[in-house]
Design a protein that fits this description.
Number of helices: 0
Helix content: under 10%
Strand content: over 45%
Order of helices and strands: EEEEEEEEEEE
Radius of gyration: 13 Å
Structural class: mainly beta
Shape: globular
Number of strands: 11
Distance between the termini: 39 Å
Length: 124
């Protein structure tokens, strides 16, 4: 079992940047793909970005492509989400999740463990 703790959220203005952190503990972090998801009030949880076990492969939702970057440091058991040019529609609770496989999918149901989430609010 992997335990995940997100941090780095906050209140920012449109156009600003934030960096989210996801610290992992438990089973071998470096063997598994990781993903970031978000959930806005009244909406379903949606895929944001994912990264393979080694960090060599990444994928993004179209809504964040070119603005967000996912990365990982396996030596620090940490996954990052760099968010630039933030928009009000990026406002949501952001969750990191681990998938029990080396390569990612974009499906919420394919991820095994989740963090508690961190709130990101972007004002216009």
């Amino acid at each position: 079992q992997v335990q995940l703790v997100e941090s780095g959220g906050g209140l920012v203005q449109a156009g600003d940047s934030l960096r989210l952190f996801c610290a992992a503990s438990g089973r071998t972090f470096s063997s598994y793909a990781m993903g970031w998801f978000r959930q806005a009030p009244g909406k379903e949880r949606e895929f944001v970005a994912a990264i393979s076990w080694s960090g060599s492969s990444t994928t993004y939702a179209d809504s964040v492509k070119g603005r967000f970057t996912i990365s990982r440091d396996n030596a620090k058991n940490t996954v990052y989400l760099q968010m630039n040019k933030l928009k009000p529609e990026d406002t949501a609770v952001y969750y990191c999740a681990v998938r029990g496989a080396r390569y990612y999918t974009t499906n919420v149901g394919d991820y095994d463990s989740w963090g508690q989430g961190t709130q990101v609010t972007v004002s216009s």
